[in-house]
From TrEMBL:
Record-linked SUPFAM superfamilies: NAD(P)-binding Rossmann-fold domains
The protein's name: Oxidoreductase
Keywords (A to Z) from UniProt: Oxidoreductase
CDD domains: SDR_c
Organism: Streptomyces olivochromogenes
Origin organism lineage: Bacteria, Bacillati, Actinomycetota, Actinomycetes, Kitasatosporales
Length: 254
């Protein structure tokens, strides 16, 4: 059992399935008191009933106050997991870009605005951001997703560097392919890039809990992402050339 989360009040957004459900199950198994959030009320209720948690369905941007009340007045851990897998290029409709920005970045900002006053006053709190490796690297065929996941990573990084000395712990989870409905929605690009090394959602939860025990900011359920990230930083042209080769291979199969 991880002592840091025992009896903690935990909120997991987007927890009706996939990574969010796996996180909610793991927190409950570790002795936390869990709020399960999802836009789909039936899915949120099903997961909550399965693990003895509380369902608070609705828009992840607007449920912090209700979730806090459901947990008796205190949120100790907030998992900003809800995300939108928007595909397309720079030519995607502006409504697609705006929705991706709202769900993948601004929902995290709004949650932090609600959570930080209490966390800073008491000197503790934990913010978990499900980012994706696309936030460290990028993803072919998915400009809105890649760009906004970079934003989600940047915000998590900013939270950590700004408030870690005041007791706020931040974790950014950056998996590649995970066997969820979101992976299925990536189509042929996901089949090429993500499916070959895809992992189960439970492996993401395992990686997070290892990171909590080791007090690590960056959580990489696919360890090889660290190597890709190093090449990207040290040799950006080499990295971009390699990614462009993958882009060309994808285009040839469409």
């Amino acid at each position: 059992m991880v002592e840091a989360v025992q009896d903690a009040g935990v909120v997991v957004t987007g927890a009706g399935g996939g990574i969010g459900a796996a996180l909610a199950r793991r927190f409950a198994a570790e002795g936390a008191r869990v709020v399960v959030n999802d836009l789909d009320a039936a899915k949120a209720k099903a997961v909550a009933e399965e693990i003895g948690a509380i369902a608070v369905p609705g828009d992840a941007s607007a449920i912090v106050a209700e979730a806090r009340d459901a947990l008796g007045g205190t949120i100790d851990v907030y998992c900003a997991n809800a995300g939108l897998p928007s595909g397309g290029s720079e030519s995607a409709d502006e409504k697609v870009w705006a929705l991706a920005w709202d769900v993948n970045v601004m929902a995290h900002v709004r949650a932090a605005q609600e959570l930080l006053p209490a966390w800073l006053e008491r000197g503790s709190g934990r913010f978990v951001s499900t980012v994706s490796a696309a936030g460290l690297l990028t993803m072919i065929g998915a400009a809105p997703y890649s760009v906004t996941k970079h934003g989600a990573y940047a915000f998590a990084e900013w939270l950590s560097l700004t408030y870690r000395h005041r007791g706020v712990k931040v974790h950014a989870i950056c998996p590649q392919g995970v066997r969820t409905d979101m992976l299925d929605a990536t189509g042929s690009a996901g089949d090429l890039v993500l499916q070959p090394t895809a992992i189960e959602p439970e492996a993401v939860a395992d990686a997070l809990f290892a990171g909590i025990e080791e007090d690590r900011f960056l959580i990489l359920p696919h360890p090889e992402v660290a190597g890709y990230y190093q090449v990207r930083a040290a040799e950006p042209d080499r990295w971009l050339t390699n990614m462009n080769h993958i882009q060309q291979k994808w285009e040839a199969t469409r």
